[in-house]
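User: Could you go from structure to sequence for me? I need the amino acid at each position, not a summary. Structure tokens:
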């Protein structure tokens, strides 16, 4: 993500990135600690902070190298925010490429940067993705009541 943000910053210095959540860093953050476009919050993020971070963003980036699923994606969809993510694990099952967000290959900072830039430059696309999220995850077959009903059918058979 940091390498992608370097590329983004070259073209759009106004774009900011907040990396939030506690975890082990698998890269040397010291080269980024003094830049104004990346902020690291490597600590537990309380719910009210998470709400604020997601609500105040245009979209969220999840550049996982490996994942099964992510509660972050569900949280973003709860706030009707599109997600740019790497297509690893189950993320491709949650994020529908070019419908509710963008999926990119892992370990490809150039592709990630391009997806971030394209979405940043396309407020209409952000709006379209947000409307799709509402349709699919709030009113469609992926809303919680529909999921519960599917489980009930399995257990009742």
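Assistant: Here is the amino acid at each position, in order:
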């Amino acid at each position: 993500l940091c390498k992608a943000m370097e590329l983004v910053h070259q073209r759009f210095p106004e774009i900011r990135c907040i990396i939030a959540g506690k975890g082990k860093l698998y890269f040397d953050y010291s080269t980024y600690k003094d830049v104004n476009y990346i902020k690291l919050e490597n600590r537990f993020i309380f719910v009210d902070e998470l709400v604020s971070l997601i609500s105040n963003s245009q979209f969220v980036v999840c550049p996982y190298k490996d994942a099964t699923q992510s509660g972050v994606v569900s949280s973003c969809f709860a706030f009707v925010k599109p997600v740019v993510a790497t297509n690893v694990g189950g993320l491709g099952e949650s994020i529908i490429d070019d419908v509710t967000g963008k999926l990119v290959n892992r370990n490809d900072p150039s592709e990630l940067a391009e997806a971030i830039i394209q979405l940043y430059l396309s407020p209409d696309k952000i709006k379209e993705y947000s409307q799709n999220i509402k349709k699919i995850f709030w009113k469609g077959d992926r809303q919680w009541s529909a999921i519960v009903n599917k489980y009930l059918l399995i257990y009742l058979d």
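One structural detail worth keeping in mind: The chain has a mean pLDDT of 89.
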